[in-house]
Design a protein that fits this description.
The complex is a heterodimer of chains A (323) and B (263).
Chain A lengths: L3 E4 L10 H17 L3 E6 L4 H5 L8 E5 L7 H15 L3 E4 L3 H14 L2 E6 L1 E5 L2 E8 L4 E7 L4 E5 L14 E4 L11 E8 L12 E5 L9 H11 L2 E4 L1 H5 L20 E5 L5 H7 L4 E6 L12 E4 L2 H16 L1
Parallel strand pairs in A: 1-2, 1-4, 2-3, 3-10, 4-9, 5-9, 12-13, 12-14, 14-15, 15-16
Antiparallel strand pairs in A: 6-7, 7-8
Chain B lengths: L1 E5 L2 E3 L7 E2 L4 E2 L5 E3 L1 H16 L6 E7 L5 H9 L4 E5 L9 H13 L5 E5 L10 H9 L3 E11 L2 E8 L2 E8 L2 E5 L11 H6 L5 E4 L12 H4 L2 E7 L8 E4 L3 H14 L4
Parallel strand pairs in B: 1-6, 1-8, 6-7, 7-13, 8-12, 9-12
Antiparallel strand pairs in B: 2-5, 3-4, 9-10, 10-11
Helix pairs in contact in B: 3-4
Chain lengths: 323, 263
């Protein structure tokens, strides 16, 4: 069966991840072209109707591994490997996100299968899936084919759109025996929020701060600029992990995805993981002292200079203009 | 315990990277450096060793790559590793993620480490996946993108950011952990350490020495094939301002914002 298996990540309340739903829709589209079905693996005790509802995104079948815990990759590798092997799936497809990367990588080893990651588009050629993967800081696109089956494709964040098709999926329970090493990591706490709860998704203007701010105190100038402009402050993963700014303000692969009217990047280099979370912004203005920073490749206005000199003066100028 | 740190030689950040159109592989000529993410993994190993929560007998840097990769090992040793292992064999050229993960797992197997550390990504391949591939081959638990490691009662307590916030995970040893750059600030090697690096033991291994099946590595053993390379859709180049006179620069920025009705 030339089917495609995906994995639907969910939070502790059972809400499925948007990137997982995108992977299901993409799998349904591709499976239709190569002549097979799109199926989903769900772990944990998710209700029948919640599983069946994944049909709305294009899944024909949902394999539910009730006893397998959510949140860590290796038990899910056990479950996916079993379903792929037992049911003869040709491909495994993952939406963007951390866990999909880990599960896809584990499957590569387990099934001696080819893997392509950071994929932005998948096409069909002679009944096979060809993954488009941007490389070298997105300056080239490689068309990658898997040799033999199964093939594993891991999408980049937001690469696949979730489309409602209005179907209902058949739900099948599977028993999975966990590998001895899969039980040696245990979740102590999951999804802890650190720092204040801030809302950046509704802001029309965002001032994003990165490592170039130099220290946690550097965010003060971002806040003053954002206030003058009537916007909010966002941050990169590096500075959130360093404890400079709250997690809720983080943009990128393990943070939020935003598309404001203006994204003003202060001291942000523009790594792919950040780019994927803000590249749909209408206008991107970047201030960075490194003229080779990748952010200048996708900004509409790039300012090469010291943000500590520019940002305070910009704040004053905007205040003056607004009166 | 014994800690193995996987390191990789990557083209220097300042080098314009290109793909060799004959082999479809990254052209790795030119100035090279130790993958910056791996310096965080070495530092993490050193902090566990110096922390004293668990006795560490040895930190071993391990790499796979051509002859020049020896320089990455010298840097790793200068940063604190006790010795190094270099897996090098013409048969490995062109290995993809699947084949590379298998090869690294085999060379690690010959060292029987209690902990394998590596950087979460390489500066050149941007792939994030090697740790999880290696772990499954070694049948060890693993976690990637870790930003804090504590050793208590012979176990690791790791923190990392995942889809819904910060996760804290307890992991039994032996384990494979990939670390993010927020985990620490790597130390600078002392001049003495740099000078002494070449004198520390370095084992050169070929595929046969660590039981690698030649059919599973190299271009022939790889499970992916690059069919074509193309240019991404052209994006209109943005305007660039060099800040020479900040007042003038700010005026230009304000005019630009004003034009787009963003003020």
């Amino acid at each position: 069966m030339a089917g495609i298996l995906t994995y639907a990540l969910h939070d502790d309340e059972g809400n499925f991840n948007k990137n997982s739903l995108g992977a299901i829709s993409e799998a349904a589209r591709l499976a239709g072209e190569i002549g097979g079905d799109a199926a989903v693996l769900v772990v944990g005790d998710i209700a029948d109707d919640a599983c069946a509802a994944l049909g709305n995104w294009g899944a024909a079948k949902v394999y539910r591994a009730k006893s397998v815990p959510e949140g860590l990759a290796q038990p899910i590798v056990d479950a996916m490997a079993k379903v792929i092997t037992d049911q003869g799936f040709s491909y495994a497809l993952f939406g963007g996100g951390l866990l999909g990367f880990e599960i896809g990588a584990g499957l590569t080893a387990r099934l001696n299968a080819g893997v392509t990651m950071e994929v932005t588009k998948v096409k069909v050629q002679d009944g096979k899936l060809i993954a488009e993967r941007p490389i070298l800081q997105d300056s080239k696109i490689a068309d990658v084919e898997c040799v033999g089956e199964p093939g594993i494709i891991i999408g980049r964040l937001n690469a696949f759109d979730a489309n409602e098709s209005g179907g209902t999926a058949e739900v099948v329970d599977v028993d999975v025996e966990l590998s001895p090493w899969s039980t040696k990591a245990t979740m102590v706490t999951r999804g802890e929020q650190r720092g204040a709860d801030v809302n950046i998704e509704d802001a029309e203007i965002l001032v994003g701060g990165g490592r170039g701010l130099g220290a946690a105190e550097g965010f003060q100038q971002c806040e003053e600029l954002a206030e003058a402009m009537g916007g909010a402050v966002a941050a990169t993963r590096a500075v959130v992990d360093a404890g400079w700014y709250p997690y809720a303000a983080q943009i990128g692969q393990t943070g939020k995805t935003v598309a404001p009217k203006l994204y003003l990047a202060a001291g942000i280099s523009g790594a792919i993981q950040h780019k994927v979370g803000m590249q749909s912004s209408e206008n991107i203005l970047a201030i960075n002292k490194d003229q080779n920073a990748p952010i200048f490749e996708f900004s509409d206005l790039g300012v090469v200079g010291d943000l500590h000199k520019i940002v305070p003066k910009l704040t004053e100028a905007i205040k003056a203009k607004k009166g | 315990m014994k800690i193995c740190v996987l390191v990789k030689e990557v083209p220097d950040a300042a080098v314009q990277k290109r793909i060799d159109s004959n082999t479809m592989r990254l052209d790795r000529s030119g100035e090279k450096n130790l993958n910056p993410f791996d310096t965080h993994a070495i530092e993490a190993a050193m902090q566990i060793k110096e922390g004293g929560a668990i006795p560490v007998e040895e930190v071993v840097a391990v790499t796979m790559g051509p002859d020049s990769a020896v320089r990455a090992l010298h840097k790793a040793v200068a940063l604190g590793a006790d010795r190094s292992v270099h897996l090098s064999d013409d048969a490995l050229a062109g290995s993809d993620v699947c084949a590379t993960g298998y090869s690294l797992a085999k060379v690690l197997e010959s060292e029987s480490p209690d902990l394998v550390l590596l950087g979460q990504q390489s500066d050149d391949g941007e792939c994030y996946t090697i740790g999880a591939v290696v772990a499954d081959h070694l049948k060890m638990p693993s976690l990637t993108q870790v930003i804090k490691i504590d050793v208590t009662d012979g176990k690791l307590r790791c923190e990392r950011q995942a889809e819904y916030g910060y996760d804290t995970v307890e992991i039994e040893l032996p384990a494979v952990i990939s670390v993010g750059d927020a985990i620490n600030e790597p130390r600078y090697p002392s001049l003495k350490a740099i000078m002494g690096a070449k004198k520390k033991p370095l084992d050169a291994k070929a595929t046969g020495d660590v039981g690698i099946d030649g059919g599973m590595v190299g271009e022939g053993g790889s499970k992916t094939k690059v069919l074509a390379l193309s240019e991404p859709p052209a994006k209109e180049a943005g305007e660039i301002i060099e800040d020479e006179d900040t007042n003038e620069t700010v005026e230009k920025i304000v005019a630009w914002l004003d034009e787009r009705k963003l003020i």
